[in-house]
Amino acid sequence: MLNLQRVAMFVAVVEAGSFTSAATTLRQTKAVVSFNIRQLEAELGVSLLLRTTRRLALTQAGEAFYLRSVHLLKETEDIVNDVQFSHRGFGGELRITSTPEYGTTMIIPALVAFGQAHPELSIRHVSSSYHADLISEHFDVAIRLGKLADSSYHAALIDNFSIIPVAAPEWIKNNPIDSLNTLGKAEWVIHTRLQSPLRWQVTGPEQQKIDFSITGPVRFSTDSASALMSFILEGCGVALLPEWLVRPALASGELQHLLPDYHFPSQGVYAVYPNTRHISAKVRALIDFLQGHAQETGLLKTNKL
């Protein structure tokens, strides 16, 4: 039977990059860590690490064992937390990542409320447009927007939101948009993380489906919605942006919604979590809470299609 303490030491060595750094993290001596890794290899009958004077490297067996070990330790932690939950409520740490824009506008207010309901729970939020590997980076949940690509993760739909074409009034004055044809030929700033940023199926005023293509010049592109909006506020052209993000700029007149009778496909908000045999109670509770929070606040309800 595997010794979980030794498995945890092995993971710590891999992630720290050396026995010395892992020993410091674990508050053990280097000799103790080294001994336990040798014992683990002896129990498994394989070499997990290649040791040189300069660095450590994983063997092929070590790479496979590391990934399984991270899964195992995460499931073990979740099981312990769930058993303890009935006695003292949620404890430990909940690790969640989202894009900076959606995190600031939507997720952080929800996390504050969730944290107030579970005062023993420590919540760590990481803002990043980068799609993290949930297992190796130890995230419980990632909030992702748009259309999900196929993956080995599970996903729960939180809600939907509208994306709308917007531009600055000064730009519109010099580049009037009166049809889908002129919209398609306009200058665009595109979001590079979209799967098909130049081709869309638009719903017209009579609910007809229309194939729409961006054929105009794309002089600027970026990987974040806030940067996209900054380009548009500077008068660089047209962009598709989430309605929840541009709502204040629309209200102040800094941006204008182009062709509001035409609707682009609604986008999903998903809570993505690792595909493990045991899903922790706190992850299930967070997903339920986010779904309920979206319903109660109505923040994502505008312009649903």
TrEMBL record:
<dbReference type="InterPro" id="IPR000847">
    <property type="entry name" value="LysR_HTH_N"/>
</dbReference>
<protein>
    <submittedName>
        <fullName>LysR family transcriptional regulator</fullName>
    </submittedName>
</protein>
<dbReference type="GO" id="GO:0006351">
    <property type="term" value="P:DNA-templated transcription"/>
</dbReference>
<dbReference type="InterPro" id="IPR036388">
    <property type="entry name" value="WH-like_DNA-bd_sf"/>
</dbReference>
<comment type="similarity">
    <text>Belongs to the LysR transcriptional regulatory family.</text>
</comment>
<dbReference type="GO" id="GO:0003700">
    <property type="term" value="F:DNA-binding transcription factor activity"/>
</dbReference>
<dbReference type="Pfam" id="PF03466">
    <property type="entry name" value="LysR_substrate"/>
</dbReference>
<feature type="domain" description="HTH lysR-type">
    <location>
        <begin position="2"/>
        <end position="59"/>
    </location>
</feature>
<dbReference type="InterPro" id="IPR036390">
    <property type="entry name" value="WH_DNA-bd_sf"/>
</dbReference>
<dbReference type="InterPro" id="IPR005119">
    <property type="entry name" value="LysR_subst-bd"/>
</dbReference>
<dbReference type="InterPro" id="IPR058163">
    <property type="entry name" value="LysR-type_TF_proteobact-type"/>
</dbReference>
<dbReference type="GO" id="GO:0043565">
    <property type="term" value="F:sequence-specific DNA binding"/>
</dbReference>
<keyword id="KW-0804">Transcription</keyword>
<keyword id="KW-0805">Transcription regulation</keyword>
<keyword id="KW-0238">DNA-binding</keyword>
<dbReference type="Pfam" id="PF00126">
    <property type="entry name" value="HTH_1"/>
</dbReference>
